[in-house]
Amino acid sequence: MAKTFVVPQAAVAEFQRGFDQIRSENDVPTSFPPEVVAAAASAAKMPFTDGHVDRTELAFVTLDPATSTDLDQAFVIERGAGDDLVLRYAIADVPWFVTPGSALDIEAWNRGVTTYLPDGRAGLYPPTLSEAAVSLLPDGPRPAVVFIVRVGSDGAVVLDGVERAVIRSRAKLAYETATAADLPADFDELAARITAAEDRRGASRVEAPEQEVEPDGSGGYRIAFRPRLHNEDSNAAMSLATNLAVADLLFAHHTGLFRVMAEPDERSVRRLRFTAKALGLSWPDNVELGPFQRTLDANAPKQAAFLMAVRRAGGGADYAPFVDGVVPWHSAMAATYCHATAPLRRLADRYVVEAALAVANGAPVPDHVQAAFARLPEVMDKAESRSSRVERAVIDLVESVALKGREGQTFDAVVTDVDDRGARIQLADPAVVARVSAHHVEPGDAFPVRLVSADPAKRTVTFERIG
C-alpha cells in the first residue's frame, strides 16, 4: 500500500486548531459534566465479589492495539468434548457499574459511541471506569460477563452459558508484538474454524486496510494505510463467534438488537464485475460475490480497491430490534448477527450483554433493556454517523496540511471508483484519497495528477489530471 507520509512538526498548531474545529462542528464533547465524573468515581468503588463467580484461576489474556487502555475483551481457549474448542470470552461488565437512569447512563445515551481523534478521544464513559475500574487490564481482578462459546470442528458455534465472573488478565498483548508463544495454543485453530464456516456460508466479511492518522512520536502526525495484521484478524474471529452465538440465542427467545445489512442489488453486482475486470481481477462467472471476496488479499492495492468498492455498493449496516416473523440478516456475515463484545465503546452492546445474561440463565429480559432495544437504532445511527464524519474530517485535515506547500507537484494515482462526481483516486505516495475530474476512466486506471490547491482551513485538496 502507499507509504507513510510524515507531517512536519511545524504544523502541530495548525492541527490543533483543526481538531478543535472538528470537535466544535460535530458537537463532540471535550469533557464530562461534574456530576458524571462524580458518579463514575462512586461507581468505580462498587464491590463485585458477591455477584460474580470466581474465575481468577483461568489464564485470561487481552489482545488489542498496543496503546489501548479501554479493554473490552479477554479470552481463554480450552479443549472441549471430542474435537470441540471452548472459548471463554470475557466482556467488561459495564452493566454492573451503570444504573439505568443514572447520570452515567444519561450521558452514555447522549454520546452513543466513543469518538476518536488523533489527539484524544471522547469516551462513552469517564476514564475512571473505561480505562481503570471496568477495563480488563492485567493489574488486578475485574468483573466481567463471560460468554462460553463452543466451536465445533466445522466452525459452528453454540453458546453454552453466560455468567458474571471475577477474572484476572495475565497479560496485555498487542497485535503488533504478540507471538504464538504468548497466545493460547488453539488461538489460530479457532480462527481457522470460524473462517472456514464463513467460507461455507458465503460470507463476505473481509476488512480492507484503513486510512488512518496517528501521532508520529515527535509532536506531529502521520497518515498511512494500515494493513490488517494476522493477530488482528484472528482476534476478530473470536468476537465474531461470540456475536453470532449471542444473536442465535436472543433470536430464539424473541428478543435482542441485531446488526442488519442488505445485499448489493443486481445492478451493483454487475457494476462490481466491471470494476473487477478493470482492476485485472479474475472473477469467474459462476462464483457469487461473497465467495469471490473471500479469495482477495486486503493488503494488495488493486484487491483492496475492489473491497472498498464493494463496501460502498452494499451500503452500511444498521441496528434493528427483534420483530416477530422477521429474520434479521447481515449480508456480509451471511448470518443473523449482533454486537455484544465492545460495551466500553458502543452503547448498544451493554444492553445486548444484559439480555444475553438474562436469557442464558432463565431469567426474563429486564424491562429497561427491552425498552432500550426500540430506542437504540436511532441513537446508534446518529452516533455512528457523527463518528464517521469526524474520522473523515480528520483525514481531510491531515491530507490538506501534509500537502500544503506542494502545489504544482505531480503524484502517481490510481482510480478506485467512478461516479457522477468524477473519479475517486488513491495516491501512490503519500497515502491520500481524493477526487479528480476525469472522463473516460475506469477503476484501476493509473495516471499522474497535479496538486492544484491544499487548504487546511477548509480541509480540502484539489487535483487535476495530467494528460
* Strand order within the widest beta sheet: 2-9-8-5-4
Q: What is the percent of helical residues? A: 25-40%
| Shape by Cα distribution | globular
Whole-angstrom Rg: 23 Å
Which secondary-structure class do the elements indicate?
alpha+beta
Query: How many distinct helices?
Result: 12
Low-confidence stretches: none
Mean pLDDT score: 89
Q: How many DSSP E strands?
A: 19
State the end-to-end CA separation.
25 Å
Query: Proportion of β residues?
Result: 15-25%
Largest sheet: 5 strands, mixed
Walk me through this protein's architecture.
With 467 residues, this protein is of the alpha+beta class. Among the domains are: 28-247 and 378-403, no CATH class; 410-465, Beta Barrel (OB fold (Dihydrolipoamide Acetyltransferase, E2P)), CATH 2.40.50.140. Helix content is 35%, strand content 24%. It has 12 helices and 19 strands. The protein has helices at 12-25, 34-43, 94-97, 103-111, 127-133, 187-201, 230-252, 266-278, 289-293, 301-314, 347-360, 367-403, and strands at 5-6, 53-54, 60-64, 73-79, 85-92, 115-117, 120-122, 142-151, 157-167, 169-174, 210-215, 221-226, 257-260, 318-321, 410-419, 422-427, 433-436, 446-455, 460-465. It has a 5-stranded mixed sheet. It starts with a strand and ends with a strand. The mean pLDDT is 89.
